[in-house]
Amino acid sequence: MTAAAGDEPGPDVVLRALADPNRRQILRLVRGTELPAGQIAAHFANVTQQGISQHLRVLERAGLLSERRAGTRRLYTLRPEPLDQVRAVLAEFWPAALTQLKAAVERDNPPSGGTS
Amino acid sequence: MTSPDPLIATIRIAAPPTAVFPYLIEAPLLARWIGDATGSTPEPGGAFALAIGDSTSVRGQFLTVDPPKRVVFTWGVPGRDVLPAGSTTVEIVLTPDGPDTIVELTHHGLPRSEVASHQAGWTGLLDVLARVAAR
Question: Which of B20, B129, B132 sits opposite A105 (nearest CB)?
Fold first, then answer.
């Protein structure tokens, strides 16, 4: 376990890191296992080793990857804690939707108000 | 494996439950608050499909339709390894309060970080969230 909870990057950083399909693919690869950069790169025909290194850095900065040295190699694995922040984003989706529900229902069902 | 603590959202609407309930099940009315519905069969086992934003489609199936009180449906994103169809459920309960309705929405079964390492089915959620956040 690394980084205290208070040091987590904000959800924007996490979401930006996740916005790239190659980076999401990297996270899928290292979920539940540790891989060196070379083996990660081997899964991508169209991305250079340099490109992969850059993606790894972005993911690490977002707190989504943890790195461990094993001899001369660096092994990467998923660090899922920031996903809680992302879950918090979904927690904003439903209240926003309910606000739209309220607006729609109340527009369609105006209070009978005065007479008639 | 599912989340022990669901997401809960509530709101008060100035209309009786009978006026609110159709918005929870009928395609043209769902479109007014969640997303464009391409179909909805509001009965247990009946399916619906919604488009949220440009490219996120949600598929679900009604489990309970109890007008004008309660509706339960599954909520999933097909073709993604997160939120596979049927993996999470949304429950909406309508409670009359004078002339108003209290709406309580509970989303059960969302993946959490503690289980993400072991559980397939979370990265598609991230795709959805990225779009929600981008709005």
Answer: B20
